[in-house]
Specification:
Elements (H helix, E strand, L loop, with lengths): L10 H44 L5 H34 L10 H39 L18 H32 L2
Helix pairs in contact: 1-2, 1-4, 2-3, 2-4, 3-4
Length: 194
Amino acid sequence: MTGELGYSLPPAIRRIAGAFRIVGWISFWIQAVLGVISSLVLLFSVATLSGRATQGETNPGTSAGLLFAVLGVLAVFAGAFWSFRYTRLSRKLRTSNPDLRPKPKDAIRAIQIGLMISLAGMLVTLLGAEAIVGSLLAKSLAQPQGSALFNPGNVTQFIQPLDIFIVQANTHTLVAHFAAIASALWLYRSVNRQ
């Protein structure tokens, strides 16, 4: 099969380049979309929580959870950038000059770095989830059981929609990291397939 410039690539390189291109773009868009959604939700949450903090209503578990969640979202954007690099690696693999093509160890190294970014991001996102869910558990246990007693002076003792919104953003971030890890493992399989 002849390529764009009239040269022929070995089938294995053509297959690997195609995998890097397709998987790179899919991973990039999944991470970009979920990262933007999570970012917007977390920005809204941080703005709302900072307004509550000025009124004396704070929840330390949610604050720590938000910090880890924001770090996880930053890692999603780093992972999306790395997935975009997979598409650039695909272009380099399709070059006509074999001396300019990346070596298999370079492709594997790129995959390993992508995996490390996503695993680190998933770790901090899971730490954020633990803090957020622990905070929500404490709130649910503090709520009066049986008859509803409402104390208007202490609204933060109740689980609010914003709390669930933060859990939703964190879940989006985890899905983005999972997609990046699955993509990297798929690419690793493609590179090592005979």
